[in-house]
User: Which sequence fits this backbone?
């Protein structure tokens, strides 16, 4: 795995970043890069205390991931959200994917789990699995493993305020996406806050509007 750079865009993520880094620490990666979008809660201090490289960037997840990709030294890049913790099987799944030369022109994501015992969490996980299987649309909270040359050929992450992950995976295409046999556990706090029915419906509405051509900046205002 010495060919792998892990890139994590952050904004005020001091409370969630520790477990995310715990999950990837000890892996023989090239580096772990935290791209901070102007946090005021000590996110950079948490990252530096764990030995991660910290970059400053303008706010915006797409822009932050672009900055991380430029700075990364590894030929393989793994993009993670700052509230997404990889489960132990992530290493073996990543190694297997990177070892296959056919995957130089493909990308991979992890299976989504939510860190909640709420019965609705299992329904959301099944819906996400169905969306990935049918449409090839993993979102950013599932991670994205991709070779830097393939990412460059696709034009990288778009610098847009929302749906940057959807825009990229649509360029990749369903036939060039693999769902790895390992899980990424992401925070369910937004579902607890917004409602287990309301939030998935809002996400679906925004996705439909995006596919219909509504500009991402308008969607970002609707997203809040």
Assistant:
């Amino acid at each position: 795995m010495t060919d792998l750079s892990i890139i994590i865009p952050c904004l005020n993520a001091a409370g969630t970043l520790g477990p995310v880094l715990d999950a990837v620490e000890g892996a023989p990666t090239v580096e772990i890069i935290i791209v901070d979008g102007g946090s005021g809660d000590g996110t950079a201090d948490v990252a530096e205390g764990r030995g991660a490289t910290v970059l400053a960037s303008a706010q915006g997840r797409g822009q932050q991931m672009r900055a991380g990709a430029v700075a990364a030294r590894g030929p393989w890049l793994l993009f993670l959200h700052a509230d997404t913790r990889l489960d132990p099987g992530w290493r073996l799944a990543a190694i297997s994917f990177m070892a296959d030369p056919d995957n130089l022109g493909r990308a991979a994501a992890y299976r989504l789990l939510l860190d909640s015992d709420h019965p609705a969490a299992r329904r959301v996980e099944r819906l996400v699995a169905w969306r990935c299987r049918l449409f090839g649309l993993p979102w950013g909270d599932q991670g994205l493993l991709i070779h830097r040359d393939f990412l460059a050929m696709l034009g990288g992450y778009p610098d847009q305020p929302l749906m940057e992950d959807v825009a990229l995976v649509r360029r990749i295409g369903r036939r060039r996406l693999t769902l790895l046999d390992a899980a990424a556990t992401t925070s369910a706090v937004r579902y607890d806050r917004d409602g287990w029915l309301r939030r998935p419906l809002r996400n679906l509405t925004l996705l439909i509007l995006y596919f219909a051509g509504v500009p991402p900046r308008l969607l970002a205002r609707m997203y809040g």
The chain has one domain: 4-223.
